[in-house]
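re: ur question from earlier - yeah i can do the single chain one, its not a big deal. heres the input i used so u can compare w yours
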Amino acid sequence: MKIYDFGKESGQNIISYKSSGADYTKIVKHNKQIQIGCIYIGQEGIVGLHKAPVNQLMLVVSGQGWVSGEEGIRYKIMPGQAAFWQRGECHESGSHTGMTVIVIESEDLEPTMKEIDWDKSVANEKQPF
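and the output i got, formated as tokens:
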């Protein structure tokens, strides 16, 4: 599993089209069929442990929660961050307080965001997320 940052600070200022106060962050490149969906994870909700049928990118848009990959360690994840799992990778996600995420699934996903250092994202089990 990899964790990425797609927050405002990761973007580039848009200067075209007489734009101002707007930033753009590239999220993913793909060349094949793609599916995009939204998951609402409720308070104390969980998307149970399963293998990714294709590459999956989960972008947190509101709330906060946790994600885990093959190693089974839960990592805190917040708005502006994304988790990426490769096809066949076991993973799960959940939240103590609720979280809304956009999920992008495709055989040929290639995240283009800045990868986050794992050590800075490790979940603290004592904090509600």
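The chain has one domain: 2-121. not sure if urs matches, ping me
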